[in-house]
Design brief:
141 residues, alpha+beta, 6-stranded antiparallel β-sheet, 30% helix
Length: 141
């Protein structure tokens, strides 16, 4: 059964896409990307050639990047819990402290993967840092 996810930015139904052995959810309207727990790590282990398929899909989705950050009040598209806002290196991400999923705006994938790869962070570390966002305001800085 296919899971139903709604984009937290534009409220469009997200489409599940297989990128090699990783299933991600992409918003066809704004190009947002939902990654369940451990999918960002799995993507960071892919070669640049393997990621080119995902980049092509994301480039075709949505006409432009959305930068409105008021969506932290939106419920998690996976479990319905309250999202939190955190910094992952140079980018802002929405994180669900309940299921550890993350939402990336169009154009943020490569910067997120670079941060994960260079900092050696795993999802547990990211989740722990995101949960303390109100104190520090950032992840990976």
């Amino acid at each position: 059964m296919t899971k139903h996810r709604t984009c937290i930015k534009c409220h469009t139904d997200m489409l599940p896409q297989m990128v090699h052995d990783v299933e991600v959810d992409i918003c066809p309207n704004c190009g947002g990307l939902w990654l369940d727990r451990d999918e960002i790590r799995a993507l960071s282990e892919k070669s640049d050639a393997q990621l080119s398929d995902l980049r092509a899909i994301l480039n075709e989705a949505g006409p432009e990047e959305l930068t409105d950050r008021s969506t932290v009040e939106e419920p998690c598209p996976a479990c319905g819990a309250k999202m939190t806002l955190a910094h992952l290196g140079p980018i802002n991400i929405e994180h669900c402290p309940s299921c550890d999923g993350i939402y990336l705006d169009k154009g943020e994938l490569d910067r997120a993967i670079e941060t994960i790869t260079t900092k050696g962070a795993d999802i547990a570390t990211i989740a722990a840092m995101a949960n303390s966002v109100f104190t520090s305001g950032s992840i990976g800085d």
